[in-house]
Amino acid sequence: MPKSEQLPDAKAIKKVFPPALKAARKAKGLTQQQAAELLKIGVRQYGNWERGESIPSAEMLIRIYRVLGLNIYELDILLPDRE
To answer: Residues 57-77: pLDDT tens digits?
Structure first.
């Protein structure tokens, strides 16, 4: 797979994902508690994602996209260098 098509590793995702998730949540006008409730998870788990302490599973990412009304490209996870 050419370098431009390689998926980022967990370390790269942990740099890109947390601020994008926080911005998306705030754009929806949600607190961490509200976002966690909509996702049916604990606020601690949600906070861990925004702090980059852990990353959600692929299944949970789909739920996050649905709850926040996003598509996969809006969080810049798979294509962080896209223009």
So the answer is: 889 988 998 999 887 666 655
Predicted local distance difference test score (pLDDT) of residue 43: 98
Q: Let me know how long the chain is.
A: 83
Per-domain boundaries in the chain: 8-70
- Taking only the tens place, the pLDDT of each residue in 3-21 is 545 556 767 777 888 988 9
Which tokens sit at 16? 């890109």
Q: Which CATH class is domain 8-70?
A: mainly alpha
Residue 6 CB burial class (10 angstroms; 0-12, 13-18, ≥19): exposed
Residues 64, 56: contact at Cβ < 8 Å?
Answer: yes
**Per the structure block, which two tokens stand in for 61?**
């990412």
